[in-house]
Amino acid sequence: MSNKKGQVQCINDEILEKLSLKNRNKFLNYNLMSYLKPEHLNFLKKTQKFFERFEKNRNINHSEDFYDWIPELGKEGLVTRVHKFDNLGFNFEPYGMTAEFMRILATDFFDPQLAMGGGATVLAINPILFHHEDEEVRLKALKEMISGEKVGCICITEPERGSDAVHMLTKCEEQPDGSFLVNGEKIYQTSGPKAGWAVVYAVTEENNGNTMAQFLVDTSWEGWKAERINIPWTPRIFIGKETFTNLRIPKEYILGKPGEGRSHLFEGLNMERLGIVCLNVAEAWNAISHAAIYANMRKQFDQEILKYQGVGFPLSDLWAETMSLTLATLNIFGMIDDKMEQLGTLPKEFNLALMATASQLKCISAKLSERTAYECANLMGGAGVCDNTLMHDLLGVTRIQEIGGGTRQVQQYIMSLTLRQIFKLL
Ligand SMILES: Cc1cc2nc3c(=O)[nH]c(=O)nc-3n(C[C@H](O)[C@H](O)[C@H](O)COP(=O)(O)OP(=O)(O)OC[C@H]3O[C@@H](n4cnc5c(N)ncnc54)[C@H](O)[C@@H]3O)c2cc1C
């Protein structure tokens, strides 16, 4: 039985039973099993089993504070799979972008808001991993986030600087002892109010991205204040507005000195966008799995509604688009994983090409997941919009995906710039 039953039951027992996490997982697996390598399919299935047991044993109804679950996910190695982290005492197998995609698919089917909210920790881990320089405090922060002991967030966006993030206003000032004092405000940080660790960007000169620095911040320090913003479409994700008042950053916590912050910020963007692609694809599959099961069982005018072309055909279109996007994502992740295995890094040319590809995939997947969640809910009628299933969570979460990680227009801007660059090569 699905553990999400809502306040008042609207869907009959038989269909609710069929909409269980276990059956939705099976639906996904039948779609993907022919295309995944055994190691990835096995990891997907293992992670799905973990969440099925987790949901059942704790009688989870998806109204809980999912941040309380993160330490347990960490013990299972389910906070991030982007890297193996063997030099930090972990030894994740499988790891890489395809494994991360599997982790996100399984997590999203269990709880879409958890999958999205948890992504911020991955974004905080990556820059520290690139710039830890074996500093003890940075290694500690990494270990605490990977193991799920602490949540992470990244602080780029400001109340007056959103898409134009490079021209930031948050200031950092070097002190005689080499530490920095940070003053300013950030906004819309995923998991900000729950974070134990934050990666913060600030400039020595307002509006001058060339003076940007990157800091690791322990949020228990004096001078850090995080307030929770209310985003009604994702009521269980904690999004923050942070105020820094003479926030002192000791030397060991400087990840990038003034001048280095901007390139550090940009080096994480491709991976951030590709992570959002995973979420979008997972959300689309989750919605399709609900609608496909429901439409095969719900009868009107004495027929299963899937048999009516008005239901079966649009659902098939969404299925085809989601499958195509999944195969494109698997293809690019396969290339990234192969290059990382062979070279330990991504070649410069490939990384440049990836910039446009990450924007293309982010842009298309965000649109597709929003439309898929809405259409699937619509095809399920009242059952799609009541609170008995995760469809309501999917409707909310897919509506904000076009904004985070750079808006649709910013992705389009990057793509159109690339079209110009290619033209100039002709
Ligand atoms: C759910 C959620 C989670 C987020 N998580 C984080 C996080 O963890 N950390 C973080 O730092 N930030 C985060 N953000 C912030 C996010 O990156 C910004 O909201 C985003 O960059 C847009 O900035 P803005 O909201 O100020 O909008 P604005 O930049 O003010 O944009 C408003 C509108 O103008 C358009 N626009 C702006 N400039 C142009 C242009 N040159 N050409 C055409 N159109 C333009 C935009 O596309 C948009 O439609 C999150 C946001 C959301 C909604």
Can you walk me through this structure?
- By secondary structure, this protein is an alpha+beta fold.
- The chain has three domains: 13-146; 152-264, Butyryl-CoA Dehydrogenase, subunit A, domain 2; 267-425, Butyryl-CoA Dehydrogenase, subunit A, domain 3.
- 52% of the residues lie in helices and 13% in strands.
- The protein has helices at residues 13-18, 21-32, 38-57, 70-75, 97-110, 112-130, 136-146, 261-267, 269-297, 309-343, 348-379, 382-385, 391-400, 408-425; strands at 152-155, 171-174, 180-190, 197-203, 212-218, 224-229, 239-249, 254-256, 299-300, 303-304.
- A four-stranded mixed sheet has the order 1-4-5-8. It has a four-stranded antiparallel sheet with strand order 2-3-7-6, covered by helices on one side. A two-stranded antiparallel sheet has the order 9-10.
- Helix 5 packs antiparallel against helix 6.
- The longest helix is centred in the last third of the chain and has 35 residues, at 309-343.
- The radius of gyration is 22 Å and the shape is globular.
- The chain starts with 12 loop residues before the first helix and ends with a helix.
- The model has no long low-confidence stretch (mean pLDDT 97).
- Bound molecules: flavin-adenine dinucleotide.
- Flavin-adenine dinucleotide (FAD) binds at residues 120, 153-157, 162-163, 188-190, 231, 239, 400, 403-404, 406-407, 409-410, 413.
